[in-house]
Amino acid sequence: MTIESKAPLPDMTVLAPVRDAVDAEHEGRGAVARGAEVLRRGVVTGLLRPGARLPEERLAAVLGISRNSLRAAFDEIEQEHLVERERHRGIRVCLPDEATVHQLYRARLALEGAALRWPEAGTRHRAVEQMSAAVETGRWARNAGQVAAMAEANDAFHRAVVSLSGSLRQLELMKRVQSELRLLFHTLDDTPAFHQPWVERNAALVDLVAQERDAEATDRIGAYLRDSRGMILELWGRSSCSRPLPASGRPSGSCS
Prior knowledge:
Oligomer: single chain
Structural class: mainly alpha
CATH class of the largest domain: Mainly Alpha
Shape: globular
CATH superfamily of the largest domain: GntR ligand-binding domain-like
Radius of gyration: 19 Å
CATH architecture of the largest domain: Up-down Bundle
Strand order of the largest sheet: 1-4
Strand content: under 5%
Largest sheet: 2 strands, antiparallel
């Protein structure tokens, strides 16, 4: 299945606060890097919705960069599967499909499963601290009804899991996977129902890692990710904006 966009022509001025924050945080960086970061944050936070078209002239004006720099920024985040080019129609935010869900969850299992099964020496104590902090933040956010904070806490938890690998490269890969997953969440009608069940399952994983029950933790993350993937597909199927994949199995313009 793939998702039809509900907001194909967003107001580009919504990115102005993001632009100002990026300019303050990354003073001295080039226009391409700053433009790519603004676009990345716009997609990940949902300011730019899946399927939204990104008109060059208006977007370049809001970002304060040239159209050539904007095109280079598009090239950068296209490699991260956040935007795509449509022939004769320009750039749009990626529309996830069912194949994307399966690919992202296979990537998660490879990254998180390996980190849990073979943790790098010296990483466990810090990872357990970070995982525990994410669980407590998730509990607070769940009880307060703060869906965005609950999602952020869950992302932080799973990055902490991958930190057991001791690999900055694997952490960067996990961040990219999580960015694509955010595109999926922005297409769901009932994101609180998705995020709530994982808070206590995260807590159970913390206990296993702290007790060095690595084989059991690895098995647990496999079941966890299968259930998470299944819930996404179930919620997606109930979404008012979903439709089946065509017979080819790959919709025109879908991202993977």
